[in-house]
Design a protein that fits this description.
The chain contains 14 helices and eleven strands. The protein is of the alpha/beta class. Strand 8, helix 9 and strand 9 form a beta-alpha-beta unit. The protein binds calcium ion.
């Protein structure tokens, strides 16, 4: 069991503060502290009252948003850099808020994580993504992509999470090889026992695991070898700096080379220009996603790309310029690799995993 404490602090204003309002102010500050995540603290300021009120309203609205049909999942295609083929899609959640309009994950995922609503929300998105992946697979069996779902540490710590994944896969009739779960670097690096066990069980199930936003925590690649991880996604901040900052180029080159050496696949996210795509291709990065290739799309639109065996990018695209979406997306879907047919794809994946295991074994022998 893990216990954390959050603290809200309020100071008594001379002659003006009753004990009741002092407690209420401390409670408001506590609410703010909790919004920052476990183990945080906050000192009361009057402006917090409005912020807390808005947050309470949003929290109330988020309850049951899925049941009311307000949540959508969009899928951002991932391409194999060498060919431009769509090999997967990351599932990204959108909330059509009745009053505030379309909200991106950055506007509600932290709230969902702080309140625990991420658990039912994540479960819903995962089930949706698996169903969509099965639909793609049925329509284009020769070209069925990997669907990638974002998973928070809160979900990973839930005792029944692995069973939920199994239920989502079975409910959709989707092979575990067709699912990749994206886990943030900080979540993996906490490496508490229940997270380690969940990662191990998911890996045994055949689900791929990728480290999301890689580089933000500069975690040790060596440590990833022990955590059942199959790949990593280079954070968009490094991709954005390619061509401008030689330091970023050096980091992406080093991360890619080391990751490949220990059998991890590398995906670049936030690719917005042809120049970035070219540099990433030259560095040997396996997969990429971003507005240069395609923005997040409805499931049917991705299905259309797969059916046509499209190569991305296709022209300028209807959205014209790049609309930056720096939100930490709650994704449920990633790209798959070339899939001449499902059997060959699964076999190829198994070979890659065996290679990774061999690489891990070789490295641990070398270290002894
Ligand atoms: Ca992600």
């Amino acid at each position: 069991m893990f216990l954390t404490a959050s603290v809200g602090v309020a100071a008594r204003a001379p002659r003006r503060t009753s004990p009741g309002s002092l407690l209420r102010d401390a409670d408001t500050a506590l609410y703010q502290a909790k919004a920052r995540g476990p183990g945080s603290w906050s000192i009361f300021a009057p402006r917090m009252r409005m912020t807390v009120l808005r947050r309470l309203e949003r929290e109330t609205a988020l309850h049951g948003a899925a049941e009311r049909g307000e949540l959508r999942v969009r899928y951002q295609p991932q391409v194999e850099l060498a060919t431009g083929r769509v090999v997967g899609a990351e599932a990204l959640t959108r909330w059509e808020h009745p009053a505030d309009g379309l909200l991106l994950p950055a506007e509600f995922i932290r709230l969902a994580e702080a309140t625990g609503l991420i658990v039912p929300l994540g479960r819903w998105v995962l089930a949706e993504a698996c169903r969509q992946a099965r639909t793609w697979s049925n329509a284009s069996p020769q070209n069925s992509p990997l669907v990638c779902a974002n998973v928070s540490v809160r979900q990973l710590r839930e005792p029944g999470f692995v069973a939920e994944v199994v239920e989502a896969l079975e409910g959709a009739g989707l092979h575990p090889d067709c699912l990749e779960l994206e886990i943030t670097e900080s979540a993996v690096m906490q490496a508490v026992p229940e997270v380690r066990h969940a990662l191990r069980d998911l890996s045994r199930l055949g689900v791929a695991l990728a480290i999301d936003d890689f580089g933000m925590g500069f975690s040790s690649l060596a440590r990833l070898r022990d955590l059942s991880v199959n790949g990593l996604k280079v954070d968009r901040a490094f991709v954005a700096g390619l061509g401008r900052d030689p330091g970023n180029l050096a980091i992406v080159r080093a991360v890619t080379a080391l990751a490949h050496d220990i059998g991890l696949e590398v995906t670049a996210e936030g690719v917005e220009t042809a120049e970035q795509a070219r540099m990433l291709r030259e560095l040997g990065v396996d997969r990429a996603q971003g507005y240069h290739f395609a923005r997040p799309l409805a499931g049917e639109a991705v299905g259309d790309l797969l059916a046509r065996d499209a190569r991305l990018p296709e022209g300028a695209g209807p959205e014209g310029g790049v609309k930056r979406d720096r939100a930490r997306e709650m994704a449920v879907g990633k790209g798959k690799r070339d899939r001449p047919h499902a059997g060959a794809v699964h076999a190829a994946r198994r070979v890659r995993r065996a290679t990774r295991s061999a690489a891990r074994g070789a490295l641990s022998v070398a270290a002894e």
